[in-house]
Amino acid sequence: MASSSNTLAEVLLSRRVQEMVVNGEQPVSLYICRDEKDAQNAPISPLAPIPIIDLSLLSSSSTEEELQRLKSALCCWGCFQAINHGIPSSFLDEIQQVTREFFRQSMEEKKKYSKGVVEEMEGYGGDPSPEQGQFLDWQDRLLLTVYPYDLRVPKFWPQNPQSFSEILENYTCKMRMVTKLVSKSMAKSLHLEENCFLEQFGEGATLQARFNHYPCCQRPDIVLGLKPHSDGTGYTIILQDIEGLQILQNQQWLTVPTVPNALFILMGDQMEIMTNGIFKSPVHRVITDKEKVRTSIAVFYTPEKNKEIGPQDGLVNEERPRLFKHVRDYEIIHWEHYQRGMRALHTAQV
Ligand SMILES: O=C(O)CCC(=O)C(=O)O
Ligand SMILES: [Fe+2]
């Protein structure tokens, strides 16, 4: 049975944050993540010196030097800024523009693509209501499965702006190219057969696009755009327009800088499992801002449904004993933990 505070969460989640902002409403208690005293003492978050990797140096005749820079980025940070990925900057501008246009439309138009409040993941709205005691995120989002094609749910694909679907189709092709190159390069950087991660992900590996809209918030000191979490994916490819994303490194929150035309690529828990703990899946969050609206597009790359994944053979040996079991559909257990404000990685440990 739903508790009273869960009912309140459901009432709040049936409304859009964007609507509350337009009505001049202040965030109510369920959006508040910390008390004001803690907020006053919170240290400022410096920019994170996240390595920049030139993807053009990784294609075909990969240079060993760039591969080792990639490996080192993923061992230390679990993420990197990918430049020279082959996607024209004009196209990156276009997909960001059409995302902003989607969220600028009337509520009536956007609500044609509404998801259910309590459980449904895909569609327009907020994430399903978390467990009691967990706070809500100051954001609205549109989540769409884009690959494989037969898993798409067309009723959630916006008809307006009219170019939305075509641009997303094109972005899906580009993301597939990026995942192939990055998955192969990660394998090569660890001196493994180049297709080994692609084989673990499987032919039917899924790509989901999450369009995040973070409206302005009058209390950025106590309200977050997205709560701290690691991703349950294999890995995630993020396009951000302005700063706001932070990663936790040595117990300190650091801001991910915006690098012009870069894709920010972040390991999820399943890559940490497949690399037997060599690559890290970083905890991250999104902060809010009083004056600036933030838009990001996160593409989640996740192993095929029902497919078992586990530490790659060449990465388990006497010096490096097996840290993780084989798992299947890990993202489901990840989500159950996420809703309780917990990480799920320990459930995969041996
Ligand atoms: O908005 C962002 O930059 C990150 C979003 C994110 O972490 C997520 O959707 O899982
Ligand atoms: Fe995330």
TrEMBL record:
Pfam annotation, one family: DIOX_N
Matches recorded under Gene3D superfamilies: B-lactam Antibiotic, Isopenicillin N Synthase, Chain
Residue ranges of every copy of the Fe2OG dioxygenase domain listed in the record: 205-303
SUPFAM superfamilies associated with the record: Clavaminate synthase-like (SSF51197)
PROSITE patterns per the UniProt record, alphabetical: FE2OG_OXY
Keywords recorded for this protein, A-Z: Iron, Metal-binding, Oxidoreductase
Family to which the UniProt record says this protein belongs: Belongs to the iron/ascorbate-dependent oxidoreductase family.
Protein name as annotated: Fe2OG dioxygenase domain-containing protein
UniProt source species: Gossypium arboreum
